[in-house]
Amino acid sequence: MRMLITRPEPDAQATRERLAALEIEAEIAPLMTRQTLGANVPRPEGFAALALTSTNALRALEDLGALDGLRGIPVFAVGDRTAHEARKLGFAQVTAADGTLDSLATSIALARLEGPVLYPAGRHLSGDLAGALAPHGLMVITVPVYEMVAETRLPDPVRPGLIAGRYGAVLLYSRRTAEIFTTLVADLIAPRERPNLPVICLSENVAQPLLGAHFTRVVLADHPSEEAMLAVTLAFAREQTGS
C-alpha cells in the first residue's frame, strides 16, 4: 500500500523514512514551503519563557541567528517532537505540552511565570495563544518569524496517481494543509469519487475541511503527534492488506 505524505520538508522525508521502516511505501507532495521572514527578534532580557508551537519556528530562529541569545530562557513546547528539537539545539529547560495549543497554554499558565512570554510564530496562526493566556495575567509577545507558503499545483507525478487511485491514503497534518489539498484536487477528483480516497488526519480540526469537500473516509490519529500518526497509518495499512 502506497501512502501520500503532504507535510512540508524536511518533515516529509523524515515521515517517509519512518514509514519505510514499517514497510509502508510513500510518496511526498509537500503542500507548503517554509520561508523565513526578516523578523527583528527581541533580546531575551525580560522574557520569562519562550513558547513554541512548531519546529519551523526553531528553524527560522536558527536562520535568523537568534538562537544563541535565547537558549537561557525556559521553553514551553507544544509537544514532544518540538521539545526534542529544542533540546537538540541546546535549550536546557524544556517542557513539553500534550500536542495542542490548549495544553500548551495550560502548561504555561501552571508555571506561574513572572514576566512576558516570547512567541516566535508563523505568519498564519492556527490559534490564539495570547488570548488563551490573557485571563491568567500573562502577556505574550508574538513575533512572526516564518511563513508557510502554499503550493499552487500538485507535483506532476502525483496528479495522475490521484486520478488513478494509486494511493491507499493521504496523510494530512494541519488544517491549512487540508484546505490546500482540497483546493488542489478540486479538478482532479470528482465529488462522487472522493469518499473512495481515505485521508489520515492528525486531529478532528484537520479533518473538517476535508469533510466539507466530500472526503468522508476519514481516519483520525488517537493523539496529535507523529507517533500517533504512524501508529494509525500502520494499523490502517494492515487492515486494508490483511497483513
TrEMBL record:
Reactions that this protein is recorded to catalyse: hydroxymethylbilane = uroporphyrinogen III + H2O
EC number: 4.2.1.75
Protein's pathway: Porphyrin-containing compound metabolism; protoporphyrin-IX biosynthesis; coproporphyrinogen-III from 5-aminolevulinate: step 3/4
Broad EC category: lyase
Pfam families referenced in this protein's UniProt entry, alphabetically: HEM4
Domain Tetrapyrrole biosynthesis uroporphyrinogen III synthase: 16-230
Keyword Lyase part of the UniProt annotation: yes
Biological process terms in GO annotation: protoporphyrinogen IX biosynthetic process; uroporphyrinogen III biosynthetic process
Protein name as it appears in the record: Uroporphyrinogen-III synthase
Species: Devosia sediminis
